[in-house]
Amino acid sequence: MPDLVPSRAAASAVVLAIVASSAPLAAQAPPFTRNVEVSGVVYGNYQYHVEPGATPSQDAQVRAGLEENQFSLERAYVNVRAAVAPRTSVRVTSDLHRADDGYELRLKYGYVDYRFLERGRANAFARVGMLQNVVIDHEERFWPRWLGTAPLDRAGYFSSADLGLAVGATLPDRLGEVYAQVVNGQGYQRVGRSDDRFKDWAARVSLTPFAALADSSPLRGLFVSPWYYKGDTASIFGPESDLDETPGYMGPVREGRQRDRYGVVVGWESARFGSAGVSVARRRSEVEGGANTPVSPITVATREGRLTSAYAALRPLALLDSAARRPLSVVLRYDRDDADTDAPGYTHYVVAGLAYDVNSHLSVALDYQETLPQDGQPPTRSTLRQIYFAHLQARF
Questions:
Q1: Which of 57, 207, 366, 367 has a CB 3.0–4.6 Å from the CB of 176, allowing a cystine?
Q2: What's residue 358's pLDDT?
Q3: 244 three-state secondary structure
Q4: Which domains, and CATH codes, for the chain?
């Protein structure tokens, strides 16, 4: 029994040593630190119009276009990103853009992001506010936005940002990501300008089947991204319509009108060689006619559209040197936009030029862009454009 006392003392010393050694480990967990990052980008250009005029009315359009030969500051974005609490961050992006009477400042992005899952490679988040729409922001990974908007944005399929709620997650084994959202459907350009009570639902799956390959593999940067956008929009004869004073008006229409879009983006990016992509999309919309009166009842027709685009911004000189990142890029793009498959013709959009990275923050380009009606589509002011550009992008 006398030997038991020292044993208890020794055991107590061991326990105290374990507790003492574990206390510093708990204290080593890094405390959360708030931080704020500010960045931005400026898009500018000089444009020289050379639109042809086949008729006197088009000649007038050409003269109006030639008056637009000028220097232009297209966009100036300022991004503020802040980590405000564990797993919680905020992003605010202001958009200074050209308007009819000068420049206007508006909100492009403004949302709160909460990472509700962070476990190894598994990551999932919820986001609320003015946020990225389902696929346009993703497509801009493969097309240089400073030379022009992405195909879906340019064709007006939907806006690049909208007010709503989104969730996203990475797929296991580096297979890609998923992104889904519910938004107002009016876009960031029309906030507060519509009483449309209907909401739009959208989802995208981006698959990266070769992401686990070595960095040197050209297949590593391949993305396959099918997406779907389910939308409804209020009738022009809705409860708040200005047409309700028409004689014989038959009352408000409360159901929504179909506005669906779907497609797939196949994109590829490489730090050495540049990027390229193909985008195929379809849309189906209900279009109303009539005056909602007994003499002129409401008509509803379904309009379908098709959009196909291929684009690339490639560095051909990178083939000559595997170690250096060459600053010269060849930029090519072709869009075929058939806005109404029942109407004759379509519009094509072409970009061809050279871009040069002066340094990591400044890029310039010389390029030609045209938008022309094809196969009997009547020309309009917006579909008859031939322009030589000198573009500039500055990042900070």
A1: 207
A2: 96
A3: helix
A4: 74-343 (2.40.160)
